[in-house]
Each structure stands twice: as C-alpha cells, then as structure tokens.
Amino acid sequence: MGGGFFLSRALDKSQENQIVEDTERYREVRTKLWLDKSQIKHFPTEIPVDATGVRFVYSPGYMQGGNVLQLRMKQPQSKIATLVKQYRQTAKYKFRGGDTNEHINKPNGVPTTFFHTSDDTTDKSFPFNYEILVLGADDKGSKDFQWNHGDSYGVAINPQSSEIIYWAEAW
Fold first, then answer.
1. For labeling, which of 36, 53, 73, 89 is most exposed (least CB within 10 Å)?
2. Residues 167, 141 contacting (CB under 8 angstroms)
3. Which domain range does residue 22 map to?
C-alpha cells in the first residue's frame, strides 16, 4: 500500500521541479518549503516595504540537483551601508564578483552561488562590484570527493547600486 504512494510520487515530478519566481510566495518558501532554517536565518522574514526591484528565485532541486533560494532587492543607501558592515564582520569567506565555480577553485575556496536573479539571462556570474560574503558553508562530501554534497549561504552586496542579494544553496 505505501509503496504505491511512493511510486506515484516518484512518477509525478511536475510539482517537484518547478522554479518559483513569484514574490508573493516568498513567505511560504521561507517558512514552509526551505527545510534547513539555519541556512536562511539571515534572510528577511518579509520582503521590506521599502524594497524596490525585487527579484526572487526558489528551485527545490530534483534528484541530484540542488536547492536554490535567492532574494534580490534594492534598499536605501543607509540600510545597505549597515548591512555591508554587519555581514563583513560575520562572513567566513569573501569574494569579489564571479560565481560558485570560480570561488571554489580559489585557494581555500568554497562553493557559493550563481547570479540566479540577474537581469542577464546568459551570464550568471556576479560583476566585480558585488561583494560575495559567505556566512556559512558545510562540506558534506567525502575526503575523496569534497563538496559533492553540502550547502552554503550568504549575501552578495553592491553598495554602488544599493542592492543586496540573499542566497542559500544545498546540494
């Protein structure tokens, strides 16, 4: 009896592989769909009322694919300045521009994220004016295959454009 349920769920992938970009679903994703709350505790509980240019991406992953959560927004310059100071102090790793493939290949590098909420549909790297601040990264791979599984989370901040991108990834 139970096997039939799991088999039908295994065959119905329509709900599992959908990318959510509707900002109206942000709270639902943050509170109900993202399982490890420690990876997203730095995200705002709600999209701030003074946020503009809001972009949101959530992908629950599929089979070996990873989960991705990214919230991009512009905030007043004074808020961004405060957030830059706060996150620089708590960041475990810091990068300028680039993407996860570049960051992991640096000395003592770790995986980060791609610019999933970018306006550019072809280039998913952060421009150099973004500071990528990794707040946490956990390698759950093996000694022989590091970072095969794991998670990382943090923020990417562009003080010039007064923009912050909150991100979390688990694979």
1. 89
2. no
3. 18-170
Answer yes or no: is 121 within a domain. Answer: yes
Task: Report how many domains make up the chain.
Answer: 1
From CA 55, how far away is CA 98, in angstroms rounded?
19
Q: Which of 82, 134, 74, 140 is nearest to 109 (CA)?
A: 134
4 within domain boundaries: no
- Is there a contact between 97 and 118 (Cβ–Cβ < 8 Å)? no
Residue 134 near residue 93 (C-beta atoms within 8 A) = yes
CA 156 to CA 159: how far, in whole Å? Answer: 10
Residue 46 domain flag: yes
Segments in the chain forming alpha helices (H) = 2-11, 26-28, 77-90, 100-104
What per-residue confidence (pLDDT) applies to 145? 84
Task: Please give the model's pTM, rounded to 2 decimal places.
Answer: 0.86
Positions in the chain whose pLDDT score sits under 50? 1-17
